[in-house]
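Quick entry, no commentary yet.
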Amino acid sequence: MKFLVNGSIAFDLLLSHEGSFLSGIDAKNLDRLSVNYLAQEYKRHHGGVAANIGWNLALLGHSPLLLGAVGSDGADYVKLLASKGVDMSLVETVPDAATATAVIATDIDERQISFFHPGADGRGTLPDFSGFKKDIAYAIMGPRNPMLMLRGGEMCVQHGIPYLFDPGQLVHAFGKDEFRHAVTGSKGLVVNEYEWGLASGKLGWKEGEVVSACGMLITTLGDKGIRLVTKEEDLVIPACKPLKLVNPTGAGDAARAGLLIGLASKWSLREIGRFAAVLGSLLVEQEGTLLDTLDTSMIQKRAKENYGEELPTL
């Protein structure tokens, strides 16, 4: 199946702090916040929401079409993604800018502090993807230039392409009306627990109002699993246990690949959530957000071990 993935293509600088971020924060003096944490580990990886999701979709034999932008330093990354079967034909190159870069610090309790430099993506445009509309089974509008997320959603509605809206940490960048517009046009809002608090406040909507507007609210819960709410069901899928915990970065994007495949395949809500949880568990076992392989037999084995039964045929 072909999937449209609109989002960032970026480099990730991953830092690991062996203590707690809370130990360096004085809650009484947040207006004068000045903190410095020792990062015992430093790694540079390929990343970006669109690239991560697209990579996982390609590893599972699907055809992701990416919408995004890279800078003068992004040619090798484009080639790498294309070599795995990711369609990069609509990805822009901005020659006088750097590729977007995320700096993500994680503490011992999996709290994260992130900074994001949009680079080329901040100057990108949204290409016309109407020529692919008959082939696209599902789409996702992931974090990037907010105007391009909104426009991408509008184009999906125009062409009859179902999409998930995934604002990530950019909730603050949307006005109330445009955020409501994007959610209402989608088939579901995807957030993590923290983002849901921000999104609910920005929208001025409670869970039921979001579900009424778009049909589905999906909240990733970290080590507690994933919650999927529709008008008919409210399910919490327990987390799939990883063999080891190395770094949670990228787990949410892997889960989103599972959501897209499950939704496009018209699986049950429970099956969709389990698939997303299994894929997320594989990512936390490594540094970096791009897996070398995704073996379907291993996915089915892990699903059966954690949930008592295999997933539908992958």
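second:
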Amino acid sequence: MINHSWLPVGDIKTQSLGDALQQNSTIMTLYLSWNKIGAKGAQHLANALHINKTITTLDLKGNTIGHQGAEDLANALQVNKTLTTLELGGNEIGTKGAQALANALRINKTLTSLNLYSNAIGDQGAEDLGNALQINETLTTLTLYGIQIGAKGAQDLGNALQINEVTKILVLPPLQVISSFTQTLTTLDLAFNQISDEGAQDLAYALQINKVTPSFTQTLTTLDLAVNDIGGQGAQDLGNALQINKTLTTLYLVTNEIGDEGAQVLANALQFNKVTTIFVLVLSLHVTS
């Protein structure tokens, strides 16, 4: 394992690293997040992936590889048969980068986890990924929060999951198509998405109907709503839902202004629901029994 996260490696040093990796047969994990690596550096790493047969995890979060770097890595994925995890969050890959990766997913049969959070791929990028997921049968985790998509992009991804029963963890901000997600979904991460009380209300409704109407909540066990501008009303709606839902086991509400009333409703819900654990880490929170 090589861990050079948070070090100013840059493109020049990445070139030396890439050259070395073409000959290396022992390193399996490579952490290079937040290293000021640009498109050139990504190209050197992509060249290594064309040859290297041992690296299974490549973490490039928080760099600036752009769409060109993503395209080079995507080309490598079309021939690489060992990489299983690729972290590209916060890399400015844009629509073109997402399109290239989508094309790679149509061919690649080994990648199981792809993280693209905080990349403005837009509706077109979401559509391309959705189309690829209708073909790909190996990717199990796709992280997409903060990708600036609207209802159309969300719908395209939702439609893909109705066909693809392998990708079970989709991290997606919009709520417009949640009710149409595959019934094999077990984890839904909506953190950092400003869903507010209105979005929380939609989710609360879905959590209540899971016993009578087929939906993603029949299998959902983990729901992350951290940092989402959820106030007291949203917390109350979720609390009421938890008095009915018996499937959810973990609910994250970290850094939401739920207030005393919202906290009280959640606490009351736990008296009826012995299955769900709620994580609320807010210093101003006071719960009275």
